[in-house]
Amino acid sequence: MIILAFAWPTISFLHALEWFFKTLYRENMENKVVLITGASSAIGEQLAYEYARRKANLVLVARRENRLWGIRENARLLGAKHVLVMAADVVKEEECRRFISDTISYFGHLHHLVNTASLGHNFYFEEATDPAVFPHMMDINFWGNVYPTYVALPYLRQTRGRILVDASMESWLPMPRMSLYAAAKAAVVNFYETLRFELEEDVGITIATHGWIGSDVSRGRFMLEEGAEMQWKEDREVSQLGIVRLAGGHVEEFAKLMVADVCRGYAHAKHPSWYDVFLLYRVFAPDILGWAFRLLLPNDDRAKPTSGRLFPEASSPRKPIAAFSSASPRRLSEVE
Questions:
Q1: Cα separation of 205 and 258, whole Å?
Q2: pTM
C-alpha cells in the first residue's frame, strides 16, 4: 500500500502525458497494408470500411468468399486503393502462411494485422449434448488469433506495425450462456497482454473489448451443416441474391473507435467505457455482481438438453438462439 501510494500519482501523471501526445498523433493509413481476418461480416466488415475511408490497401480474409467480393466493392467505393480477397480458414496454420505470404508477395509489406474471426454462442453449458464441438469454439476464438499473429510477426516487425484484436468484456465479466466464449476470449486477452511485453515497442498491440454491440448473433439462429461452412440463415439468403448490406448502429460505432485507437497507438479500446464499473465490482465486491446477475437474469427459461442438438429447439418461445444441425459437425467457421 505504501508503494502504491507513492507510485500512483506518478503513474497517473505519465499516463495523462501519454494520452495527451497520442491524442495529437494519428497514423496516416494511406497506402498502408491492412490484413483483416473474419472480414465477411459484423466487426470485420465494418473495420474494412473504416480502413477504406482512410485510403488503406486491404486484404480481406474469411471462409465466406462470396461475401468478401461484395465487401470488396463497398471498400473500393469508400476509398480503398487496392483490395485483395482471400478465402482461408484461420484455424489452419498452413492457410495462414498462405494468405500472409500472398499479401507480402503482392504488396511487399504489412502494417496492420486485424484479428476479428470469432464465434459466439447463447446457451447454458449443461444444455450441450455434443461436447465434440467444444474444441471448435477454442479453435476459432483463440487459435484463430494466434496462428495469423505467429506468421505475420516477422513482417510486422519490419514495418513496426500494429496488431488489432477484437476481444470482449466477457473475458473478465462472467455472463450466463457464454461460458466457452468467455473462456476463449480470456485466453486471447492474456495471450496478447503477455505478447505485448515480449515485443516491447517493435510491434504495437491494441486490444479492443466491447459489451453487447449488436451483430449477426442478434439476428437469428445459425446452422452448421455437415461438410459446409456456417452461415447465418438470413445472411445466406442475402448472399444468394448478391447483396451485401452495410450493418449499422453500435457495430459501426465500435469499428470507428477501434480504428481510431489503433491509429493513435492506444493499448486498449473499450466500448462502451461505462462497462468498467463492473470491473470494480468484480475485484472488490464479486458477491454483489453475482446477486445482480441472479436478480436481472433469471434462469427459469432454461431448457433440458435434447438429443442431437447443441442448443434448444427453434420452436421455443424465447428469443432466437443458436442451433446446430443434428449431424455431427466437423468444423466451425468464423462468423465475424
A1: 12
A2: 0.75
